[in-house]
């Protein structure tokens, strides 16, 4: 069941990285291109919400301490999606709804091509960094799972040693009584 949740989390990570990249591009687009990005991000946000619901259903089926840990991860994902949704809402608003601005006087016309290129490069760098952070977070979670498995195995080995020691003591007592 944990592998299914991990699969959902991987899908979610890819989806949110794509949403983040598209939100950055919405701000630089206009007209039909902007509308297409907005529709695509709307669809992806709904898909991400469905993934979170699937994760929550799977977490309900998990027992013990793992459930609390997984529930915390899902809540973290939900908070991230809420932040992305807010970012998306602000990105799709027109730059200034109340004042009509001539194209010559607009903010966009005062930006040079070099500045636009640097902004896009920075946005892509931020996206790459976000993906790197998500991969790092995923590795931390995998390491945590491996550590808990090792601790569980060590506990089982300890119990086996205790049982073996108890049997040896019983044999020694039995042997001493027979002598």
TrEMBL record:
Principal location class: membrane
GO MF entry, a single one: SNARE binding
This protein's GO CC annotations: cytosol; endoplasmic reticulum membrane; ER to Golgi transport vesicle membrane; Golgi apparatus; late endosome membrane; SNARE complex
Membrane topology: Single-pass type IV membrane protein
Subcellular localization(s) per the UniProt record: Endomembrane system
Highest taxon listed in the record's lineage: Eukaryota
One BP term from GO: vesicle fusion with Golgi apparatus
Keywords: Coiled coil, Membrane, Protein transport, Transmembrane, Transmembrane helix, Transport
Record domain Vesicle transport v-SNARE N-terminal: where: 1-91
Coiled-coil features, chain-numbered ranges: 34-87
Gene3D superfamilies per the UniProt record, alphabetical: 1.20.5.110, t-snare proteins
PANTHER family to which the protein is assigned, alphabetical: VESICLE TRANSPORT THROUGH INTERACTION WITH T-SNARES HOMOLOG 1A, VESICLE TRANSPORT V-SNARE PROTEIN VTI1-RELATED
Similarity remark: Belongs to the VTI1 family.
Official protein name in the record: Vesicle transport through interaction with t-SNAREs like protein 1A
Source organism per UniProt: Habropoda laboriosa
